[in-house]
Specification:
5% helix; eight-stranded antiparallel sheet; single chain; globular
Length: 279
């Protein structure tokens, strides 16, 4: 898989990072978690927020960038109750299975190195595909490799970098119903989203398009294969309670995530693609 635009390097913690340097962008992907750490189109600012307190040594899931939550989002339930928050693959090493492209665009595909007993227990297989150019496309692709229907809950947990959360609007979810995970209430969004307090919401919608607007940029976000859109910012007090979250990091980030949270069932032999595209 030799390609002039990607090489494997070590970070300061001696962990493996795929470093992508391309005429149209730069990016970094951690082998731990298959985790996109950074993406910056040429002559633009960084698109993703990564906590300066994030652990990049493989000791815990990485705070910031694009964590991949699979095969459940949030706490495990049912037969997996008590197992890791947001599933397993954030804490596994991944292997590179495809690199292809040219000076216009690059596609990178990775798969988690999953213990065979875990894969058999889950009955699911997964890979992530990143398509890079002057924009970003992410696909989380799951196949049911068992003979029985399997529940699947997941999220592409993107941390967007913003210059000032006070001057940030999320546009396109007006009139959508959402579950407020802080108050445990079901509510309806009125107008565009402006964040001035802790926000942890699951918008129950499969609408494909929304945007994140600041004083300096507008990110257009689209998706497919989702039944929910998650919006999260811990705000000041909760940020201080998260050890690997910078105390003032809440001022420069917001998570906007395409997700499946509503009881999706994947039939035997079938494949599901969860997509988030950003431009």
């Amino acid at each position: 898989m030799n390609n002039p635009y990607i090489k494997l390097v070590k970070n300061k913690d001696a962990s493996d990072i795929f470093d992508l340097v391309h005429p149209r962008f730069t990016a970094q992907i951690s082998k731990f978690g298959g985790h996109l750490l950074a993406f910056k189109p040429t002559n633009q600012e960084q698109w993703l927020w990564l906590s300066t307190s994030a652990k990049l040594d493989g000791s815990k899931p990485i705070r910031g960038g694009v964590p991949l939550c699979w095969p459940w989002f949030g706490p495990a339930t049912g037969e997996f109750e008590g197992e890791p928050q947001h599933g397993y693959i954030r804490s596994l090493d991944w292997e590179l299975i495809l690199v292809e492209g040219d000076d216009k665009a690059l596609t990178v595909r990775l798969s988690p190195i999953m213990p065979s007993e875990l894969k058999e227990r889950l009955g699911l297989d997964v890979f992530v595909e990143y398509k890079f150019s002057n924009k970003l496309k992410i696909s989380l692709v799951t196949t049911n490799v068992s003979e029985t229907p399997r529940p699947l809950s997941q999220a592409i947990h993107t941390y967007f970098r913003v210059d000032d959360i006070h001057n940030t609007e999320i546009i396109g979810l007006d009139n959508c119903q959402f579950a407020d995970k802080l108050t445990k209430e079901s509510k309806q969004q009125v107008s565009d989203i402006k964040i001035d307090q802790s926000v942890d919401r699951v918008y129950v919608t499969d609408q494909p398009d929304l945007s994140c607007k600041t004083n300096t940029t507008t990110r257009l976000i689209s998706g497919a294969g989702h039944d929910s859109i998650v919006v999260w910012n811990p705000w000041k007090e909760l940020a201080k309670d998260i050890p690997d979250f910078d105390d003032n990091g809440y001022l420069n980030m917001v998570c906007i995530e395409m997700a499946n949270t509503q009881g999706f069932i994947l039939a035997p032999g079938k494949t599901h693609k969860l997509k988030q595209n950003i431009r």
